[in-house]
Amino acid sequence: MAVDSPSGVIIIAAVFLHAATTIVCVSDAVLMLERMIPPSHELSLAELRAFDSARHGRLLQSPVGGVVDFPVYGASDPFLVGLYYTKVKLGTPPREFNVQIDTGSDVLWVACSSCNGCPKTSELQIELSFFDPGTSSSASMVSCSDKRCSSNFESESGCSPNNLCSYAFKYGDGSGTSGYYISDFVSFDTVITSTLAINSSAPFVFGCSNLQTGDLQRPRRAVDGILGLGQGSLSVVSQLATQGLAPRVFSHCLKGDSNGGGVMVLGQIKRPDTVYTPLVPSQLHYNVNLQSIAVNNQILPIDPSVFTIATGDGTIIDTGTTLAYLPDKAYNPFVQAISSAVSQYGRPITYESYQCFDITSGSVDVFPEVSLSFAGGATMVLTPRDYLQMFSSSGSSIWCIGFQRSQQPRRITILGDLVLKDKVVVYDLVRQRIGWAVYDCSLEVNVSATGGGRSKDVISTGQWRDSKSSEIDYYYYLFLLQVAFLLHILLSRNFLHFL
What we know:
Layout: E1 21-27, E2 30-35, H1 45-59, E3 67-75, E4 83-90, E5 95-102, E6 109-116, E7 140-141, E8 158-159, E9 165-170, E10 176-193, E11 196-213, E12 225-228, H2 236-242, E13 249-254, E14 262-266, E15 268-269, E16 275-278, E17 287-288, E18 290-295, E19 298-299, E20 315-317, E21 324-326, H3 328-342, E22 346-351, E23 354-359, E24 370-374, E25 379-382, H4 384-387, E26 388-393, E27 396-401, E28 403-405, E29 413-415, H5 417-420, E30 423-428, E31 433-438, E32 445-448, E33 458-461, E34 472-473, H6 474-498
Parallel strand pairs: 5-12, 6-11, 11-34, 20-29, 21-28
Antiparallel strand pairs: 1-2, 3-4, 3-10, 3-14, 4-5, 4-10, 6-12, 7-10, 8-9, 9-10, 10-11, 13-14, 13-30, 15-32, 16-31, 17-20, 18-19, 18-24, 21-29, 22-23, 23-27, 24-25, 26-27, 30-31, 32-33
């Protein structure tokens, strides 16, 4: 479209089929347009549609939602790494932090520069970082009067002498951390297709830890903090979903081999063989109804009430736990059943406090299959490698049961990384259910950008990081478009004035 003005100015609005455009120069009233995406990089029609869809959402005052991708590092082997972690970028300019993936808590926190008791080195071969609010131009403290201060139900809420909203967390292993909340920006990658990702950022509240105790102080598994993926209002899932930037569903696929790694996305990994069990309502954690355990297809004589909240602490799914734990009334018959099944192949021994078996003949295949049955008809089948850890000693193979006895007086069942690895696990917070399917987590996965039955386009993730030329800073693009719009208004008014 072209409009003549008294000064001979031409205002041009152009649409390019093969490339998004940005304004790079304004001379008098002439708007010069150049390609934002270089001509050498051709986008498919699907990618262009996805890009336009994201833009239209912003123009309609609806934030851009999509699959938020997190890289996964670490492994489940307690004698090697014993945890899975990812990277998050916080502050302005963004700084990267390694944080443990934890579905058993709600808050993202990182160690701050003033931390007491925080480890300075890590045996995970990563360099530890400390967040300094003074070096982020967008950081601000959350005051005690801020409504966000009272929204975290798991914190022992408090108010520091200088009116800062403070927190204190205690974890199941006895470790703990305390500090205060900060409001800043979190940066992340929104994946549109397997070759197109948008750099995004959003306001975010997270914890600034100034004290750590217990195992959090030890360098063996030290990371910069913890990424809480619970259902609370301050979890990364809730905060991004509230802003319309991510769906209220997330998924992970944790590789079980010694190299570890895997995939984690805010989105639903699609697998046709996924089975689901409902979440127990109104619980702080991801509680499910475990109903029975079978060894070699024989249901063990365990009262189902052992696994429920009514008579104990219930059954929770927790990526922050390396192994798996059973209360006494379930642990004893479970170990006895395993021992009976392999008695002719070796002898039971204790190895580093684990219940193990010195197998003199045969391999891991002599161990039985284990089945966990849940409400809704869902079953989780565990092969021997899904619940055992292997060591070699004097020519023998020592196999240890990864299921442990819950510490008294707690009567809790915890399903940790031991049984969650090598599976797609989906946390659907819209439909309040958890699903899983056995999968090779080294392969690419298909992900839906929305959950709870409102499926969007299904995309593939896992390869886009190799296509950095397709990575676009969406908010920079949006800013330039807004500048163009304002200039158009100003120039139009100037034109009308001369009329």
